[in-house]
Amino acid sequence: MGRLRVALDRTQTPLLLALLVLAIGLLAPLGGLALENRAIVMLINVSLVVGLYSFAGLSGVLSFGHMSFMSIGAYTGALVSIPLVAKGTLLPDLPGFIANTELSFPLAVLTGGLVAALVAFVVSLPVARLPALAISLALFAVLVIAYQVESNWDSVTRGRQALFGVPTNTNLGVALLVAVLTIFFVYGYQESRFGLRLRASRENELASQAIGVDVVRERRIALVISGFVIGVAGVVYAQYLGVFTPNDFYLDLTFLTIAMLVIGGTRSLTGAVIGPILVAVLTYVLQRGETITGPGLQQIGLALVMLVVLIFRPAGLSGGAELRFSTLRGLLARSRFRAASRAPEPEPARAKEALDDV
Amino acid sequence: MTELIQHFVDAAGLASLYALLALPVALIYGIMGLINFAHGELIMIGAYGLFIFAAVTLPLAAFLALVLVIVAALAMERAAFRPVRGSSPETLLVTSFAVSFLLQNVALMIFGSRPKSVETPSVLSQTVTVGGVQVEGVTILSVGLALVCIGGLVIFMRHTAFGMAMRASAEDFTMARLVGIRANAVISGTFAISGAAAGVAAFILVVQGGSAFATMGLTPVIIAFVATMMGGLGSLSGALIGACLLGAGTVAFDVMLPTQLRSARDAFVYGGVLLLLLVRPQGIVASRRERV
């Protein structure tokens, strides 16, 4: 019993977040197909933003380049899973070993994640050694490099033309499973010694170095881990779309994911999970508004909300706190307190009765 | 030999444009620790300014567009960056990212996604041939403007009271305030200078490309970032050297790459920069700000 309680205490944050995500994922189909599709996209965004958080949130170094790992995952996952028959006509000049592979969906997801992690490792060789702010800028350059390579490597990616014929294996269940696994995986990393060292370097780079944290090494590990998670999310997203171009993983998505992380709160896993959920709701409302104002309201509204959060609540809505049972209890108590202060009369009487009972 | 001089001339044209892009970014970073993502959108505003004022004569249109960009830069500082001043560099960076995205989409809403073509005098698009070397009008324009602007900036920073206040603030902002330098004035002034530089760069880019569009700030701002990063963040001379290297590297890859790879040239250039950073992670000129 005691051991169970300790285990529960340690995993309460990812458990609660997974429950939240599960609840949304299971309720969404009740609202029809359109809502179900929104829920799938939202769940993929949760995986993406949690992946981004495993680098940017834990290290405190912002990244403009993580969508490049997503595109690498997406293209890899697509190339190894497009049916052989279609591949011959779609991409006749493909190198032999890829041209002759056709993997099942789980293997494709794993391959996409691993290749993205490998690229992240190569990127980390020069990038992790830079000063914090320069890492953000260098990763932005990485995004441009990935985009340009994908837009021009016609024999492998079809360049700027859409890559189609990708099997659409992603459904609500898959998106849900990947989101939940991602939450637990990244939480595990966050609480491991690697995550602790990385967070120490975020709080104070010099002090963490003084107690023996190799900041460059920890950032490198974080880049590889986040590359893997985002690569996996990339495969899942690509196999939801079925058709995509390099533009699907470029600036708009970079902005969207950063906005989600900032609005939710960069300094906690809870923020990385609630950010995409809040933004999904916000986007829905703004899209409704666009029928009146014309297109553009969605992006402008999102940017404004992000600025308001940055100015008035820079730690995001989560404020850097994690969701725990005690948070929920606190929220409940507060609402009870509010209800009590609204109707103060009967309370003392009841309290007195309670005392009398004792 | 002629070919070599030709490449040198092309590189000089690019390098001076890049210097005009990188300097203001490095300047603002030096003063307040902000990497300004929205600098590209100042350029975009300048280009649309040229489009709006195109009805009047060009010198007047250029002047009005310049004023517009400076006002936009000041307004940007007042509305978005002053409230978050003193936050961590990451917060400042992401704030400017949000401002950049906001302005891009506002421009999309107003002007639409199709580029607006801007007429520029045909003199500037002509090519002069000097001893077998072809010099484009826009090359002469950007080299000239860059020399004037950078020279002006150097004189301003060295010999005026305000310039000295700026240098003092870049050295140690708190100390500068303690000896009576007004923080708001220095920062506003720096933004005005960056706005002016963006206006000049917008003029060159419009002469070069002939049009204004909402996302035109992206490529310039990436170039500015990469050049500043190469030079070691916060060092003005480093940013200049970075811009020159980047210009030279771009021309070199243009010449050396086979034709089918040329459209991915920037990928090679930035890849080269990353390799360079592998050797010198602190940039070419390691800045004092980052030194422990």
Which characteristics define this entry?
heterodimer; A: mainly alpha; B: about 290 residues; mainly alpha; 4 strands
Describe the protein's architecture and organization.
Chain A has 358 residues and is mainly alpha-helical. In chain A, 77% of the residues lie in helices and 0% in strands. Chain A is built from 18 helices and no strands. In chain A, helix 4 crosses helix 13 and helix 15 crosses helix 16. The longest helix of chain A is centred in the first third of the chain and has 27 residues. Chain A is globular. Chain B is globular, with a radius of gyration of 19 Å. Chain B is mainly alpha-helical and 292 residues long. Helix content of chain B is 71%, strand content 4%. In chain B, the strands form 2 sheets. Chain B has a two-stranded antiparallel sheet. A two-stranded antiparallel ribbon of chain B has the order 2-3. In chain B, strand 2 and strand 3 form a beta hairpin. In chain B, helix 1 packs across helix 6. Chain B contains 11 helices and 4 strands, in the order ααααβββααααβααα. Chains A and B meet through helix 7, helix 8, helix 14 and helix 16 of A and helix 4, helix 9 and helix 11 of B.
